Give the backbone structure.
Amino acid sequence: MSTLDLIYALLKGLEVTLVLTVLSMILGFVLAFVAGLGRLSKYKIVRTISAIYVEVIRGTSLLVQLFWIYFALPILGIRLPAMAAGILALGLNSGAYGSEIVRSSILSVPEGQNEAGIALNMTRFQRMWRIIMPQAFVMMLPGFGNLQIELLKGTALVSLITLADLTYQANVLNASTLETTKIFGILLIMYYLIAWPMTKGIRWLENRLTVGRY
Amino acid sequence: MKPMFSYKKVSKSYDELEVLKEVDLDIEQGEKVALIGPSGSGKTTFARLLMTLEEPTSGVIEVDGEPLWHEKKNGTLVKASEKHLRSMRGNIGMVFQHFHLFKHMTVLQNVMEAPVTVLGFSKDKAMELSKSMLDKVGLADKLEEYPANLSGGQKQRVAIARALVMKPKIMIFDEPTSALDPELVGEVLEVIKEIAKEGDMAMLLITHEMDFARDIADRVVFFDEGKIVEQGSPEKIFNQPETPRLQAFLDRFNSR
């Protein structure tokens, strides 16, 4: 097979990889904020639940989580389609790591900002969303950028639960053509080409939000 | 006449460390009170209690006869709810040593923020009000700048406008010029002096600028080791100090 044919065959997996990345990114983003704010809650129960989620997910392997959700949950009667299982595992993971970014960014906004808000008689909610969060968000961006790229690369694991993503297609192609070097070379480049605009996009956002202000 | 603000046997401790020891002080409406004293004497804590940034360990602070940190429930005083604190806080404003401007907002947005979100003013009304405040502190030409692009003196003047726009009954100035380069101190003191002249807002001014305290204060209060050691008119405090501790403090200042 020519190089072009190989690329064409691999691209069949692109859609799955992209859909997985985007959807688990969204899930991860939401979970990161929920758990990150949860760890700063004034209620102990909320803090505890958030901490357990973060520690359990961070302390265990993504691959095993994926297997567990896809192969072990059905035994307990919960059967998820491979795509949903993939999104769930990746989203849960991204959310756990992301929550630490959210938490530490919020904590790194100087206390004086909060005190100035109190002095102006703003409510706790107004101080968080008008004063603290906009400043914390800018600090979250580099961390989130890294996390999204980790996530993209993590999607390669879903080929192991039968999802036909880029890596899955590469394995299929490799078995039938044995052009191993070429196929996995192209695969590397493809992941790089997806990650590149993500890096640039985050950098652009960071610049836009900070220009003239810091 | 009943005092507008009243500290009654107010103490504040951090673990073992007692920062304020049963302090009493009344402040009348419109009165300008300067707090002087060595670092660590409790002045800043004293002011932060009034701004509700710190909670007193014991004692009561009253604003217009009503307890600030407590609520009356069935005849007894209980710890104030957030709702009660919110209803009281509007009377009090504060200017910080390190400005604490909102970094992600322009000068105008900094001043407009509270009138819109806290007082519920329309954007137009808040903007008009904020612009006139910024004009008063001499920054009408900096509306669209971000704080990062301002000098320390300009930042502090924005902070003053931001606090002033809420029309508090008392304004706390916590060492407003201590973080400034010497050549920028004057412009900030000038603005505070102008505001002081205007009248019926009381001021609690923590400062190491003795000439300034003498200029604007109706009364000077000397703190040392968590207590008020001496107080009186600026003339009395600066010209005829009675206690050896105040004497020593002033001597140290004059010899610098």
User: Anything to note?
Assistant: Chain A has a mean pLDDT of 93.
